[in-house]
Structure prediction request, 260 residues.
Amino acid sequence: MSDGRVMPPHRVVESIKGVGAPRVVSVATLLLLRHGRTTANADGGLAGRQPVELDETGRGQAAAVGERLKGLPLAAVVTSPLIRCRQTLELALPGAEPVAEEGLIECGYGAWEGQPLKKLAKEPLWPVVQQHPSAAVFPDGESMAAMSARAVAAVRAWDARISAEHGPEAVWLACSHGDVIKAIVADALGVHLDLFQRIVADPASVTAIRYTPLRPFLVRLNDTGGDLAGLVPPPRKRRRRATKATDSDAAVGGGAGVAR
Prediction:
């Protein structure tokens, strides 16, 4: 896969009706981190909101992603309140003080929680989850549409706040779950929730999104080993503009990436 270094500039010039000069708008970078592998993942079960913990492999994954995150100036760290996410951050970012965000909690799978996936695959609801997830409502649980809506609302609200408070170089991290991250990515790509099963978010993977006034940009997806330093915007004095394009514009031809 691409190393993800092809990206638009970081400042957004927003046209203001009736004003001749543009206004510079801050754009933060969101890093979505999925928790490391859990005992439920290893056993082929659906954990849901149960208090399952990382297994030995998951702890190793969390420590490894911590090495990749080391040195990144994170403006904020936000997390699902579930223990597997908190354990991941304790290992990946020791010393960080994550803020729990209910909007990032795992989908409420209701009666499906704790069940083997092989058994669930025989349920009448399974094909709906696979092919038409926007219509899936889990028994005694949450709908996938509701999960998507509250997760997207949470990250967009946090991103707007961090952009306003910390400026265009801000990078922040949110630790969450596979289906939650996939739903956020689907929204960023502008695709229907029914297509989100085409997206992959492996344990301890990093996905990066930048929200601009016109559109979000998916900068990286399911990155499990790449260099993350390129996700940090360079200082303003090092920025150059080859064209009059704004950060909301796509780089036609792919762009030049970030030279370091």
Observations:
- The mean pLDDT is 87.
- The longest strand covers residues 216-223.
